[in-house]
Design goal:
Elements (H helix, E strand, L loop, with lengths): L1 E14 L7 H6 L7 E14 L3 E5 L6 H8 L7 E6 L3 E4 L12 H11 L4 H15 L14 H12 L6 E5 L7 H16 L3 E5 L3 H7 L2 E6 L2 E7 H18 L13 H4 L16 E2 L4 E9 L8 E3 L4 E9 L6 E9 L4 E6 L13 E8 L7 E11 L4 E14 L19
Parallel strand pairs: 3-7, 3-8, 5-6, 6-7, 12-18
Antiparallel strand pairs: 1-2, 1-4, 8-9, 10-18, 11-13, 13-16, 14-15, 14-17, 17-18
């Protein structure tokens, strides 16, 4: 038996850019009554079986919260059909139904009555509600004195103690400390085991994957994918990564290095005078003019995907020729921790610039960094290690990845069972 059946529902809203609020304004400024119709849901259909937990995911504005409001009958669809089998309890907005001047105890009775409980039924549950909310010493204070976390605790405690057949939750668990969030999910698992059906709307995809049996990915009012939670979450991750890479802002074809006076003191006459703590320092016998980071297609970009190829091009000009120069690069966290560093000397490659300008490139066939934001260091030193031009955090770049591993580095691996 299905707890929820949604069949081909649509929902549109009228958007007024500058609607007059008074009759005089409406009569005198008729243009303000112009509006556009925005269709939020475009004929979606799904079912939720009894005892099943369903996650709704998608970017902001895709229709997730609108769907929950339709299920609770806060709003009604333009077309389509919704069937609900059982009592519904919902947590759609923090403290919805609470009166700020009433105490927590009084609001328990008010909120419980909204869910259909009688005073006698609430009397039998009030101790459990107060204990779960952990608001014992504050329960008789006006709720206007509560923090947002206290609001959430009380609202959640009421919602899970009304013997609901269906529980609808919209981002409510994003508020509160880690211990209480764990307590909430433990209680939700208990309710699920008892046969309560649930729909969870959240941007916390790990919660969907861990808690929900199934998931639906909404995009611009339609269902992009429906199925097992882990499979839908993986598909959504891949989509978001592709979109971020495709929408990355182009980098100028020639990215000139900032003038020396803006980035560091004037070049030192010898190594002892250099400020090694500056973002840029060196003797400037040879000088970095620009650094390009190119993807597999040759595009100069600042967004890459784990495992893709990457080329770093260091463009330079020679101010005072030397016999040999060492070119290096490093990947760092934004906080400054070194993740990887290398140079031509370590790789036993001797470079002797013989022209006024040039480019040295290093090719990385498979970028091993996991998703995150990083900094690129670039440097030129002489064969003895004296800095000629050393850039800390020349630029930042971002890595997107379908790899769900933790940390900074992606390591190829394969699990197996040994008996």
């Amino acid at each position: 038996m299905n707890a929820i059946e949604v069949k081909d529902i649509t929902k549109s809203f009228r958007i007024y850019p500058d609607k007059g609020s008074q009759l005089k304004e409406k009569l005198l400024f008729r243009k303000r009554n112009r509006h556009e119709v925005r269709q939020v849901l475009k004929g979606i259909s799904f079912t939720v079986e009894k005892g099943c937990s369903l996650g709704l995911i998608g970017h902001n504005g895709c229709g997730k919260s609108t769907t929950l409001k339709l299920l609770t009958k806060i709003i009604y669809p333009d077309s389509g059909e919704i069937k609900i089998n059982g009592r519904v309890s919902s947590l759609l907005e923090l403290g919805a139904g609470f009166h700020p001047d009433m105490t927590g105890r009084e609001n328990i009775y008010t909120n419980a009555s909204i869910f259909g409980l009688t005073k006698k039924e609430t009397d039998a549950r009030i101790r459990d509600i107060i204990d779960f909310s952990e608001l014992g010493e504050f329960i008789d204070d006006p709720v206007r004195t509560y923090s947002s976390g206290m609001y959430m605790r009380l609202a959640f405690a009421v919602a899970i103690n009304v013997d609901a057949d269906i529980l609808l939750i919209d981002e409510i668990l994003a508020v509160g400390d880690a211990n209480f969030q764990t307590k909430c999910f433990d209680r939700l698992r208990e309710l699920k085991a008892e046969g309560t059906s649930m729909i969870l709307v959240t941007h916390d995809l790990s919660s969907v994957e861990k808690f929900c049996d199934r998931a639906i990915w909404l995009n611009d009012g339609v269902i992009c994918r429906e199925g097992k939670a882990a499979e839908v979450v993986d598909a959504y991750y891949s989509f978001m990564n592709r979109r971020k890479a495709e929408n990355s802002a182009p980098v100028p074809a020639v990215e000139e290095a900032p003038p020396a006076e803006e980035t560091s003191p004037a070049p030192a006459d010898d190594a002892d005078e250099m400020d090694y703590s500056a973002n840029r320092f060196g003797m400037r016998y040879i000088e970095i003019t620009s650094v390009c980071m190119r993807d597999a297609s040759g595009k100069d970009t600042r967004i890459f995907t784990t495992g893709d190829s990457l080329s770093i091009e260091i463009n330079y000009k020679v101010n005072r020729p030397l016999d040999e120069y060492v070119f290096g690069f490093g990947f760092y966290t934004i906080e400054g921790a070194c993740l990887y560093g290398n140079n031509t000397q370590l790789d036993r490659l001797k470079i002797s610039p013989g022209t006024d300008t040039g480019t040295v490139a290093v090719d990385i066939p498979h970028l091993p960094l996991l998703a995150g934001k990083y900094a690129l260091n670039a440097a030129i030193v002489d064969k003895d290690g004296t800095p000629m031009d050393f850039y800390r955090k020349y630029c930042s770049f971002e890595v997107v990845s379908d790899d769900r591993s933790e940390g900074y580095i992606s390591i190829d691996h394969k699990w197996r069972t040994i008996r």
